UniProtKB/TrEMBL annotation:
<dbReference type="Pfam" id="PF00933">
    <property type="entry name" value="Glyco_hydro_3"/>
</dbReference>
<keyword id="KW-0378">Hydrolase</keyword>
<protein>
    <submittedName>
        <fullName>Beta-glucosidase</fullName>
    </submittedName>
</protein>
<feature type="signal peptide">
    <location>
        <begin position="1"/>
        <end position="24"/>
    </location>
</feature>
<dbReference type="InterPro" id="IPR036881">
    <property type="entry name" value="Glyco_hydro_3_C_sf"/>
</dbReference>
<dbReference type="InterPro" id="IPR026891">
    <property type="entry name" value="Fn3-like"/>
</dbReference>
<dbReference type="InterPro" id="IPR017853">
    <property type="entry name" value="GH"/>
</dbReference>
<dbReference type="Pfam" id="PF01915">
    <property type="entry name" value="Glyco_hydro_3_C"/>
</dbReference>
<comment type="similarity">
    <text>Belongs to the glycosyl hydrolase 3 family.</text>
</comment>
<dbReference type="InterPro" id="IPR002772">
    <property type="entry name" value="Glyco_hydro_3_C"/>
</dbReference>
<dbReference type="GO" id="GO:0008422">
    <property type="term" value="F:beta-glucosidase activity"/>
</dbReference>
<dbReference type="GO" id="GO:0009251">
    <property type="term" value="P:glucan catabolic process"/>
</dbReference>
<dbReference type="InterPro" id="IPR013783">
    <property type="entry name" value="Ig-like_fold"/>
</dbReference>
<keyword id="KW-0732">Signal</keyword>
<dbReference type="InterPro" id="IPR001764">
    <property type="entry name" value="Glyco_hydro_3_N"/>
</dbReference>
<dbReference type="InterPro" id="IPR036962">
    <property type="entry name" value="Glyco_hydro_3_N_sf"/>
</dbReference>
<dbReference type="Pfam" id="PF14310">
    <property type="entry name" value="Fn3-like"/>
</dbReference>
Amino acid sequence: MYSIYLKKLIATVAVLVSVAQLFAQDKIPANAAYKSPNLTIEQRVEDLLVRMTPEEKVGQLSTLLGWPMYTKTNNGVEASEALKTAVANQKIGALWGTLRADPWTQKTLQTGLNPVLAAEATNAIQKIAVEESRLGIPLFLAEEAMHGHMAIGTTEFPAAIAQASTFNPQLIEKMGSVIASELRAQGAHIGYGPILDLAREPRWSRVEETFGEDPYLISEMGLGLIKGFQGDGINNPEQVISTLKHFAAYGVSEGGHNGGAVHIGRRELMQDYMYPFKKAIDAGALSVMTAYSSVDGIPSTANKKLLTDLLREQWGFTGFVVSDLGSIEGIKNDHHAASSLEEAAAIAMNAGVDVDLGGNGFDDALLEAFQDGNVLEKRLDSAVAHVLRLKFEMGLFENPYVDEKLPAKVVRNTQHIALAKEVALEGITLLKNEGDLLPLSKNLKKIAVIGPNADMMYNQLGDYTAPQDPEYIITPLEGIRAKWPHAQIIYVKGTAIRDTIQTDIPAAVKAAQYAEVAIVVLGGSSARDFKTEYLETGAATVSTKDDKILSDMESGEGYDRGTLDLMGKQLELLQAVEATGTPTILVLITGRPLLINWPAKHIPAILDAWYPGSQGGHALADVLIGEYNPAGRLPISIPRSVGQTPVYYNHWWPKRRDYVEESASPLYAFGHGLSYTTFDYSDLKISQSGTDTDKLIEVSVSVKNSGAQAGDEVVQLYLRDLVSSVVTPVKQLSGFERIHLAKGESKTLRFTLTPEELALYNAEMKHVAEAGEFEVQVGASSKDIRLTGSFELAEAILFTTQTK
């Protein structure tokens, strides 16, 4: 009896499925409900889902590489045959990097698109998707955008690590708004960023893409970029969807190997690494990208507890999760956690991945998994709904095209260029200034500018950079020449970053001997060239095959380091210049902390500019001459040796003992940065109000500019939980503010702490602010604490139930 009933039920379901599929394959009427803007988004999504075939649903989750999807012609640009095939056969839902240009894509200034042609290209692409597909669903176009849109003719901002050095989230929000406006003007909808990874492993190749080592700083800077990208809503034609990277704990892989295994416990994962992501989700971030790495043996693209249980069910995330490029296939090919691509697709989908970046992870493999019953229709529909919902919210069904005249007015306009300089200025960090060598006199007559990064255009810009017109990229040499127009500027490269053949140290020595001051610009490079080999993911490989001359690239995705020394003969060059007796200034242009023990001991003035972007040369010259008083702060500690790492300031108790060979403390600590003026701190006050989760702890402090000139100070507040049920950090940044003070001016700053900032995850994984005493430390860096005080939390405050 039961067998007969089951057979009838199966037959009934089969008929219903057949009817639904026939309905889905029908020609779509012009008045279909999903086409009506008068209905709610949910009504439109539901109507469209019912009409879609399984092939169309799977296709909607595929994001293909975008740069093959257009063809340049004598008259402009048009959609390529590759796009028409992808729309017709794969029924794709999105493209990535359509406007990207770099050595990996083989798109140059000649073969790539300027902003005007970019708008023409995206319109042509959308026309195919909208008018030559059964359902007419517009495509999502996603682009790399962490320090400016990675496309020709756009505004190049400083790298993320330099952005973090500003300690100014409001400035980064302005930058995000500019990047978003440039993206939308050209027809893009999604900006990849911010990167919320904690960079506690300086050997890792992607440190430059992060906001540093501290979860609080990362969250605040990340929130600035998200607000800039998404604004008050993505229905605004100048805003884009923000994609958070990389979920989760990507930046602390074993040995610093990009995408390697990550070994951290549940408490540390939640306390530190998830903190910025939780803040971003609470702020309304609409997209999350998985990581290449595994956490405790579970590939991030296959981690259901993180992607579904935590992200969606506990945090209430409503956007879509996208795999990093090739990471679904990586479940099988890299992590060996699946026996087939079909199994890998099913694992990723069931874990909570909605969209496949690259188009090879889902596609046929996901369709097979669905047809074999390994992925349920409910799960497939939810993934598609997450994507469609945002397309409707953005208004793409009504307005899939852009004004092709707009990019000429918006992209890289004078206001955007000025903002790029402002971000560079605020990020430049003065590490040392012995004898007040800086600022330099405006009346200098002979200046030696030396070093491999003094006049190498692309070495200023970092990874994920498109070819740009040299007119818009200002090197340190160009900036110095512009600032001292009447001085004799003697430029000698001296050596390369890595290569030792291209070296002429005697010429550099001669230039230094002749000059009043020597400015030596060293560091690293993430500048890709057309000889570099690339993996399918776009990461560079270190191999140079038969090239006799090494490229400068020693940082950027795929360029993990075994040491942190200045490469090649850079240190030898600096030592030779210093030996001349000419006052020497070291400028660091780099993407990660490098070992500068000898310079810190022997060179009187050191500036760290990271990768300062297109206006970095002008910004640096303003600092050197004293027209801008530097106030950048280190977002990541600079170690004394590789053997000392990790050396982040907020390590857990106990206090670290010194090594046999050296101190356990960093050479320069998190938050460090000097000024041309001085600041005094006084009158620390702490008070409490409210109860339970509404309790507020108010901290006020007075800061006075006691020096001879105006300047910015970055006031930093740290907390220490004096007694806790589990081990906690020796101190934790919990507030900061960048303020400008005129000579002699004072200002009272007020910080408000909530119980959530005091909370920890206890042994039962409950999120709780435990009763007890907390120490407040206020100062100019994690090491330079000027004032301390304390307060007591009378009762424990519970925030969440036990995490899954």
